[in-house]
Write a structure and sequence with these properties.
The complex is a heterodimer of chains A (285) and B (162). With 285 residues, chain A is α+β, with helices and mostly antiparallel strands. Chain A folds into three domains: 51 residues, Uridine Diphospho-n-acetylenolpyruvylglucosamine Reductase, domain 2 (2-Layer Sandwich); 116 residues, Uridine Diphospho-n-acetylenolpyruvylglucosamine Reductase, domain 3 (2-Layer Sandwich), CATH 3.30.465; 103 residues, Enolase-like, domain 1 (2-Layer Sandwich), CATH 3.30.390.50. Chain A has eleven helices and 14 strands. In chain A, the strands form four sheets. Chain A has a five-stranded antiparallel beta sheet. In chain A, α9 packs antiparallel against α10 and α10 runs antiparallel to α11. The longest helix of chain A is centred in the C-terminal third of the chain and has 18 residues. The radius of gyration of chain A is 19 Å and the shape is globular. Chain B has a five-stranded mixed beta sheet with strand order 2-1-5-3-4, sandwiched between helices. Chain B has two domains: 76 residues, Beta-grasp domain (Ubiquitin-like (UB roll), Roll), CATH 3.10.20; 65 residues, [2Fe-2S]-binding domain (DNA polymerase, domain 1, Orthogonal Bundle). In chain B, 30% of the residues lie in helices and 15% in strands. Chain B starts with a strand and ends in a 12-residue tail after the last helix. The radius of gyration of chain B is 15 Å and the shape is globular. In chain B, β1 and β2 form a beta hairpin. Chain B is an alpha+beta fold. Classes of the chains: A alpha+beta (285), B alpha+beta (162). Chains A and B meet through β1, α2 and α6 of A and β4 and α3 of B. Bound molecules: flavin-adenine dinucleotide (FAD) and FE2/S2 (inorganic) cluster (2 copies).
Chain lengths: 285, 162
């Protein structure tokens, strides 16, 4: 049953500084709301535990895409529509552009933010595999200061992240050094539009004379969190793409992934399809 | 309770509401604009679609505080007086509306789509309307209505405040 809105408090401080002040004053007491496409669904389902909310949706300080010749920095408040429209996302980061266009309907993409997708930390979310493959770095801010961390270190367990109670995800930084990498991404869901994935992969591979020189594989719905498939990558590194390599990579993928049975699919289906997706990618190289 | 000022279909309005109250409920209960419908209440069906500062959104997922100062267009603001908007006229002529529950959302989603792609191809129409579910028409007639609307002059206009 839907929750009673009268029981909730929501404020919209005018600046980022004021938001950080509130988070620092009573750490853990306040929950941020950006595009609200997770929070308002939780409210509708009567499972929004947080009673005090702070809106950051209006903060232009968090809604930006800054480009240099070397890198792109994306504010956490950037919507999926903003991402899809951006020329450098389109030219340099096809995995991210594809993930943004998969994330729900157009109405959802107009509101939903990249920061919300990351911090919500669903193992099935669409942008994490792409960000893992791109080796993104996160910038976290609090009243105590600013810190950066590789995105691979952010997800600690099922819906558990490295974000401290007084911290906010400020921005996502990605180097523009992916020239020559071959991208691959595929989401397997019930329908193309706004279906949460049963399983998804996003990968980048650099080859030279048929040999794998670098490979990064991000996966959704194969572990309790969005994850890089490092054992699979190791099985491929410096190997030529042969049937034996593919078999070894499939085996590595099956040992390092731990999919589950849930309402969307079964563990067996997920494991099998993930190995097939990997093979599809390797055969395309 | 928080005081919220916003512009609905060109008219400035001020209301008092709990800040987390859904824009959908403010429209229907406080402002008596019942064109936006509640289907799922969780962002899946699009029957509550409105335009917020020109962007298509699901009003069931917008807390009213986040609409402070915004310009909202609902289906009530699409027709001018007694005259249907060209998109509405095309839905009528092509049989794009049957029971009508999805229709206000479909029309607003179409409006948003045609602003982005004045001459959309079928894939663009399907993507633009993928968040709007219809249980009656089977969609084909809706797509035909959108195609007809894309060839009709005046489709991108929203009437100015009365
Ligand atoms: C119909 C529908 C379809 C969807 N389809 C998909 C899909 O296909 N794929 C997919 O991945 N997701 C999907 N989603 C989920 C959702 O849209 C995304 O996860 C979205 O990116 C969440 O962003 P938001 O800004 O709306 O989050 P919010 O609801 O505002 O916040 C989500 C969480 O992140 C926290 N948060 C937000 N911003 C910050 C920040 N800057 N710093 C710290 N914490 C923050 C909030 O406190 C909250 O816990 C769908 C949702 C709906 C309603
Ligand atoms: S009622 Fe809002 S999307 Fe279904
Ligand atoms: S006309 Fe009945 S749901 Fe679309």
């Amino acid at each position: 049953m839907r929750s009673n809105v009268l029981q909730y408090d929501l404020t919209a401080p005018a600046t980022l500084e004021a938001v950080l002040e509130i988070l620092a004053y009573e750490p853990g007491e306040y929950t941020l709301i950006a595009g609200g496409t997770e929070i308002m669904v939780a409210l509708a389902a009567g499972r929004l535990a947080a009673k005090k909310l702070v809106s950051i949706n209006h903060l232009q300080e968090l809604r930006f895409i800054a480009v240099t010749p070397e890198a792109i920095t994306i504010g956490s408040g950037t919507t999926f529509t903003d991402l899809r429209k951006h020329p450098v996302i389109q030219s340099d980061f096809p995995l991210l552009k594809q993930a943004a266009s998969w994330t729900g309907s157009i109405a959802n993409q107009n509101r939903a933010t990249l920061g919300g997708n990351i911090v919500n930390a669903s193992p099935a979310a669409d942008t994490p595999p792409a960000l893992l493959a791109c080796e993104a770095t996160l910038t976290l801010v609090s009243k105590r200061g600013t810190r950066t961390m590789p995105y691979t270190d952010f997800h600690l367990g099922y819906k558990k992240t490295a974000l401290a109670p007084d911290e906010l995800l400020h921005s996502i930084h990605i180097k523009r050094n992916l020239n020559g990498y071959i991208p691959y991404t595929r989401k397997v869901g019930t329908r193309n539009a706004q279906a949460i994935s049963k399983v998804a992969l996003a990968a980048l591979c650099l080859t030279a004379e048929g040999v794998v020189k670098d490979i990064r594989i991000g996966a959704a719905s194969l572990q309790d969190r969005p994850a890089r498939l490092t054992a699979t990558e190791q099985a491929l590194l410096n190997q030529p793409i042969t049937p034996a390599t593919i078999a070894a990579a499939r085996a590595a993928l099956l040992t390092e992934t731990h999919p589950i049975d849930d309402i969307r699919s079964t563990a067996q289906y997920r494991a099998h399809v993930a190995a097939n997706l990997l093979e599809e990618f390797l055969l395309s190289l | 309770m928080t005081q919220i000022t916003l512009t609905i279909n060109g008219q400035p309005r001020t209301i008092e509401a709990p800040p987390l109250k859904r824009l959908l409920d403010v429209l229907r209960e406080d402002l008596h604009l019942t064109g936006a419908k509640e289907g799922c209440g969780e962002g899946e069906c699009g029957s509550c679609s409105v335009l917020l500062n020109g962007e298509l959104v699901n009003s069931c997922l917008v807390p009213i505080l986040q609409a402070e100062g915004a310009h909202i267009t609902t289906i009530e603001g699409i027709a001018s007086n007694e005259k249907l908007h060209p998109i509405q006229q095309c839905f009528l002529e092509q049989g794009g509306a049957q029971c009508g529950i999805c229709t206000p959302g479909m029309i607003l989603a179409t409006h948003h789509l045609l602003e982005k792609y004045p001459q959309p191809n079928l894939l663009q129409i399907q993507e633009g309307l993928a968040g709007n579910l219809c249980r009656c028409t089977g969609y084909t007639r809706i797509f035909q209505a959108v195609q007809q609307a894309s060839k009709t002059p005046g489709t991108n206009s929203v009437p100015s405040p009365i």
